[in-house]
Amino acid sequence: MRFKELNPANMKESPFTMLADNWMLVTAGEEGNFNMLTASWGGFGVLWSKNVSYTVVRPTRYTFEFMEKYDRYTLSFFEPEYKDTLMLCGSKSGREINKMKDTGLTPVFDGGSVYFSEARLVMVCKKLYWQDMNPDNFLDASIMDNYPKKDFHRMYVGEVESIHEKWVINPLDLQ
Ligand SMILES: Cc1cc2nc3c(=O)[nH]c(=O)nc-3n(C[C@H](O)[C@H](O)[C@H](O)COP(=O)(O)O)c2cc1C
Questions:
Q1: CA–CA distance, 131 with 59 (Å, rounded to integer)
Q2: How many C-alpha atoms does 120 have within 13 Å on its Cβ side?
């Protein structure tokens, strides 16, 4: 499947729907050594005059090792029929299963990043900043309910270097 680059200014979708309803795969690594997890928390915006994403990964995740080691990560968004695939990547660890074999997804190696040919939209992000969530700063006590194991997320802010959108070839365009 081919992709075309999308200007961030032309992104029309609600980030709330993209994340809360449809989820995403967060992938880091390189050819032969990468891993992905499903995430539904995070966001996009502007920081330090750059287009950025923020993504939160618990240190217990296998993907965390890849987020730490590599400079870039990708956020891949899929059509609803991939929900089972995202559920698998969000409930099993790459330490226990072979996620590529079990999902049947096709990796795309693009410079220093990895994403999936089946995705409908991909953001390639370069790490700018990280910070561990500090429970002392939780201003609503109920946030703590998300951390029975005290495995507080590490937040990564990444510059959105490019956005790739699935390019469905219209036969009329070829004439
Ligand atoms: C809908 C959904 C959203 C999730 N969001 C996150 C998230 O934002 N951050 C995170 O660290 N884990 C999140 N998870 C859990 C990981 O995807 C899950 O633990 C996964 O198995 C980790 O895989 P890994 O060990 O191969 O990295 C989510 C899971 C689901 C199903």
A1: 12
A2: 13
H-run or E-run covering 33: strand 33-39
> What is the sign, positive or negative, of the torsion defined by CA atoms of 103, 26, 14, 124?
negative
Q: Which one of 24, 33, 38 would you pick to mutate in the ligand 1 pocket, going by the greatest count of ligand atoms within 8 A of its CB?
A: 38
Q: What is the DSSP letter of 13?
A: S
Alpha-carbon distances, residue 73 vs 13, 56, 84, 103, 170 (angstroms)? 21, 12, 22, 19, 30
Residue 170: other Cβ atoms inside 10 A: 8
The Cα–Cα gap between 55 and 36 comes to 13
Helix (H, G, I), strand (E, B) or coil at 174: helix
Residue 39, helix vs strand vs coil: strand
Contact 101, 88 (CB under 8 A): no
Q: Which tens digit of pLDDT belongs to each residue from 57-104?
A: 999 999 999 999 999 999 999 999 999 999 999 999 999 999 999 999
Q: What is the pTM of this model?
A: 0.96
Ligand 1 proximal residues by C-beta, below 6 Å: 23, 35, 37-41, 56-58, 61-63, 87, 90-95
